[in-house]
Fold these 2 entries.
Entry 1:
Amino acid sequence: MPVDPEVTMIKRLLLVASTNRRLEKLMSTSPLARGLVSRYVAGDTLQEAIAVTRELRAHGIDVSLDLLGETVDDLAESAIATKAYVEAVRAIAENRLGATVSVKLSQLGIGLDPAVCADHLDELLRAAAEVGVPVEIDMEHSSVGPATLEAFRAAVHDHPGTRIAIQAAMRRTPGDLESFTGVTPRIRLVKGAFLEPIEKSLQERKEITAQYRYLADWALVNLPDPAFGTHDDACIDHVKRSADRLGIARRDFEFQMLHGVRRDVQRALAEEGYRIRVYLPYGMQWYPYLMRRMAERPANLLLFLRSLVSG
Ligand SMILES: Cc1cc2nc3c(=O)[nH]c(=O)nc-3n(C[C@H](O)[C@H](O)[C@H](O)COP(=O)(O)OP(=O)(O)OC[C@H]3O[C@@H](n4cnc5c(N)ncnc54)[C@H](O)[C@@H]3O)c2cc1C
């Protein structure tokens, strides 16, 4: 399919807008954005996220809880985010939700002080291990990506169940995957959601999909319990076919999708006997998350603009 230059431009604009603090302030206080937010976000509170988790589990869909919030301005904020994650893992265990948590290391302060961030991550991983809740680490923009991978590398020996997101679009990814020694990482393979320069990242959709499929096959063969974070039929069908060909059972890997995206496919996968986990954000700081979701599907921008016009 040829790349539509207008869509590509809107996508880039949305990704630039996702990091604009003034726009964030404007949108975050607009009641008009709420409709769109509620499609992707469980609610403002952990309690609301737990309620949505229960509903999803009733349909055979597992959850990874994500406390919204990214780059913090000071380390006090990162300490607060860490405590909130500790509260979440305890709530998951107490309520027997079978969920994981997904954490962004920028939220734990990696951009300010990697050593303090490592302490926060350690606090979270220990608390999670105490109650038997797995932790997943999101992969962010390349400004913090390599540091995120190093933090994972340092933590994974003591906490081998930890999962790290890996972006297929990034040119360094194959090398990163082969660079692990003494541990085979658990990964969530995603295409990559951030605006990256051509030297660092593939840009064409076709190329990224091809790389995703190649890495998916590699992960199925070489890694334990891989997770495939995608809504793309071309990737989902490829993973299903490869797993069949390799004789890998449907419960030995996992599909992951974002809350609010392709719910019909989520349910169908569960009914077919595949493991499916939904990434479920909650909290107030939804702006950058929402803008990236709109960039993934610029048609969503029209929905949003329509809601602004119609009030
Ligand atoms: C569970 C999970 C965790 C993720 N974690 C990370 C991470 O840690 N780091 C990172 O960089 N990226 C992450 N991503 C985002 C990912 O990198 C992609 O940006 C995103 O998944 C879109 O790519 P796709 O594979 O779904 O394929 P696409 O080709 O983008 O989408 C395929 C189809 O899915 C539907 N779709 C996709 N996105 C949307 C949307 N937002 N709204 C409505 N419909 C949509 C559309 O029908 C589209 O045609 C994550 C994605 C998932 C599913």
Note: Residues 138-139, 165, 167, 188, 190-194, 229-232, 235, 256-258, 261-262, 279, 293, 296-297, 300 surround flavin-adenine dinucleotide (CB under 6 Å).
Entry 2:
Amino acid sequence: MNTVVQLENVDVYYGNMQALCNITLNIEARDFLGIIGPNGGGKSTLLKLIAGLVTPSSGKVWVLGRPPGHAPGKIGYVPQRFNLNREFPFSVLETILTGRLTKNNLFLHRYTAQDELAVNEIMRRLDIYDLKDRQIIQLSGGQMQRVLIARALVMEPEILLLDEPTACLDANSKSHIYSILKDLNQDMTIIMVSHDMGVISSHVKSLACLNMTMFYHGLPELNDTLLGQVYGCPVELIAHGVPHRVLPHHQEEVHV
Ligand SMILES: Nc1ncnc2c1ncn2[C@@H]1O[C@H](COP(=O)(O)OP(=O)(O)OP(=O)(O)O)[C@@H](O)[C@H]1O
Ligand SMILES: [Mg+2]
């Protein structure tokens, strides 16, 4: 086994607020790990930890055998939210090209023909080539999301971190993205946060359930006991396109 991400007894605090508690997790190469859990459960924090954007308050984290943030170009990250600087007029092409920058070549980097080739190829693959000269502030939510995925992929990372990558996508775009991810997963480790239970259970190889602590890490087999533990409330599970409730309502639940 080749472990690419390793967390050992990790706590994360934001000031006095604890976001993650005693997380121990090993992720193997070429895994496709889905992370589910309620809002505020620490899913984005976990991805940021692996991306090196959040530091653990205690415990240890290794990514590709090194501390996080020390593997330039090897981690692709699609954040849940992308703060657009509206003063800065970037085209789609320029935005994706910035994915070819790493901490080591940030300054005085001139894009090479190889950079442009990689960008053109990824834009074609994600069906956004026709948008290449559009300003990113003009894009729709779903178009923007595909641009961000392209930007994360253009360096051909070893590990891809996706924070709700299909949240704004229509059904066709979603299945297109998942077929691309399946392809990429042949030689790339993918860690994906999603609220979409149907997608999670049918596309990932393993599953982690997170609500400050890790409730489960194993095969993607969801059951009512597990979901009840993680969410503490009923959850709709969409299986094969058919929604069904996997947990009974709590007696005290207020229907809205
Ligand atoms: N920069 C920050 N400063 C202070 N608190 C933060 C910060 N980022 C996250 N938090 C808090 O940490 C907790 C975990 O947040 P996180 O964004 O990781 O949750 P999440 O599982 O991704 O939620 P969601 O499903 O809503 O995206 C939340 O209570 C959140 O308010
Ligand atoms: Mg989040």
Note: Residues 238-256 have pLDDT under 50 and may be disordered.
